Amino acid sequence: MNKKDLKEFLDAKVVQYNHPRFLESDPIQIPHLFVKKEDIEISAFLTATIAWGNRKSIINNASRLMELMDNAPADFIKNHQKGDLTGLSHFVHRTFNGDDLAYFIKSLQNIYSTHGGLEAVFARNPQKDTIQPAISDFKKTFFELPHQKRTTKHISDPLKGSAAKRINMFLRWMVRDAATGVDFGLWNRIDTARLSCPLDVHSGNVARKLKLLKRKQNDAKALAELDKSLRKLDPIDPVKYDFALFGLGVFEKF
Length: 254
Hints:
50% of the residues lie in helices and 0% in strands. The protein is globular and about 60 Å long. By secondary structure, it is mainly alpha-helical. It has eleven helices and no strands. The model has no long low-confidence stretch (mean pLDDT 95).
């Protein structure tokens, strides 16, 4: 396909998959349970954190996590006491365990009480055409409290070679507009043009078949290459093509 045909094909797939039907089988349904901004962004961040593996398992465990927080994540984050964390000790999703969760709760409390919240941290030190350095800076802030070394693996660092799929997905949820009822459009301090596609096995394989990506590994270099290709198709909202690439890979086995 030439560039014009490719864009028309992918734009049609965006319309097909950027639809509320998408919520039925996607972890983004968890933050859609909430109405208040801070409940949405905190539930979204925690859901994205455990978003690897079987999607049904991700959704079930994210739902359980919300229940453990009394289905009031912002209130729990801001007002929990040390004893409240004991009820989280048995939570496990793959390698993310109760100790990791306890630190995430304490760190999020610190971010909201000291740094102005998640949006404020990600919006610091903006670069014109990429959000990846901001993700790296976020990780430094997130782990400024005493923590176990093992917990750091649950926040990726793009400047150390990671594609940071889960955080890029979380940022897509928060920044892209809510017109179709899928993403939330809650954050206005970050431009959609700076966002990156959540690169995983599905989107990576489809991108290679469509010649949007040559690099074989799904790492930071591959993400930069894919960003460049998608921004040629839509410089204002390149990450919308996540719906097309993911949908083609997961639902159509493209």
